[in-house]
Hints:
By secondary structure, the protein is of the alpha+beta class.
Amino acid sequence: MGIRYQQDYIVPFYESDRFKKMRISSLLAVALQISGEQSVSLGRSDVWVSEHYHYFWAVIEYELDITRLPVFSEKITIETQATSYNNFFCYRNFTFKDENGNLLVEIKSTWVLMDQESRKIERVADDIVAPYASDKISKIIRPHKFLKAEVFEGASQVRYPVRFSDLDMNGHVNNAKYFDWACDMIDFDFRATHEPKHIAIKYNHEVLFGDDIVGKLLFKGLVSHHNLNHDSTQIEIEWK
């Protein structure tokens, strides 16, 4: 099932929202940081992958189950484990727990390796993932099903320009930014009285500097459906 890695973490002011709760985008950013720290400890840092294969890691799917969001100044423990992989996809889980060991947030994620020049998905070399002790599997884990772009015809929309500050070291929009863009389409009163219970995110195409993001929003009950750039990124949020 893979080697486990964990870190204690205190939620800082700058990762907390208006209601002192840790932002979802911050959860995702910290999860990426923790997974990167494990990779460094195992001798498979981003630099190593780049120098030996000219690849970089990219997350293509997230699924979050939220019992309670961490709050400002709370001490939590974040644990991650690269669970399994096949020829093209690698699967990694994260858990966020409070000081008493109670589960706050669970994240399941799917990763791919991309060539730095061609920007195409490459096969997973055993040499890259061997130190994680993940299980090699033949099946592909079935992804979440989202509403297609056609369903959003006539839905409300907002346009966001991609700024330099939105980019990460791989040259494309940092994956945590999409959730903020999606949620910014929802009005303040709803956000003040609801919080996410379950979130599914799928990144189908990377977005580069100079592009614009066109986000569309559709509500079905207490589930908000977000479509960015005609299925480029799809997000579904169940609220409570």
